[in-house]
Amino acid sequence: MAKLSSDQKTALNWISQADYDLKAAESNLEEEFYATTCFLTQQVAEKALKGYLIFQKGKLIKEHRLLILVKECEKLNHHQFQGIRPELEILDKYYAPTRYADLTDIPPYKLYDKTEAKQAIESARRILDFIKGLIIK
Fold first, then answer.
1. What does the domain layout of the chain look like in residue ranges?
2. For 6-135, which CATH superfamily applies?
3. Strand, coil or helix: what is 72?
4. CA geometry: angle at 61 spanning 39 and 3, to 5°?
5. Which pTM value belongs to this model?
6. How far apart (Å, rounded) are the C-alpha atoms in residues 98 and 33?
7. 99-120 b/e with 16+ CB inside 10 Å = b?
8. Which terminus in the chain has less CB density within 10 A, N or C?
9. What is the largest CA-CA distance in the chain?
10. 97 DSSP 8-state letter
11. CB 106 within 8 A of CB 98
């Protein structure tokens, strides 16, 4: 295996953190913390995309919106990322409303259920596996 650059090592740290966040999301699902589960799945996707971009470009993009991050990825590899766009669209909506009580009429934890949280975990897992397949060979 070729020696990794500093940027590539940093990218793999982002992927490792995404793995950890996925495990945390699964744990929160078991404890019925569905809003937190959904937020963590957004974080899995964000960190995976950032890891890919750092691995490829050596540059961190300070952005939380998944659809903007994926546009940057598509500039490098357009066709491959189209397959995960539907999952990204789902998870993108979990960044703020899952946490901030002033964005809705009820507390965020009342907005999400087990079915939605399970689907979010599956989407996050597909995204993370896809990114790993591109950079970990």
1. 6-135
2. Nucleotidyltransferases  domain 2 (1.20.120.330)
3. helix
4. 105
5. 0.94
6. 11
7. eeeeeeeeebeebbeeebbeeb
8. N
9. 53
10. T
11. no
Written as one string, the DSSP assignment of 1-34 is: -PPPPHHHHHHHHHHHHHHHHHHHHHHHHHTT-H
Tens of pLDDT, residues 33-54: 999 999 999 999 999 999 999 9
> What's the token pair of residue 119?
């689907």
Asked if the model's pLDDT at residue 2 lies above 80, the reply is: no
Tokens of 123: 């989407």
Residues 6+ apart with CB under 8 A from 6: none
User: Taking all residues of the chain, what is their mean pLDDT, rounded to a whole number?
Assistant: 94
Residue pair 61/67 in contact (Cβ under 8 Å)? The answer is no
Give 60: exposed, middle or buried? Use CB within 10 Å, 0-12, 13-18, 19+.
middle
Phi-psi region of 59 (alpha: psi -120 to 50; beta: other; left: phi over 0): beta
Cα(101)–Cα(111) distance, rounded to whole angstroms?
11
- Which is nearest to 65 in space by CA: 88, 36, 40? 88
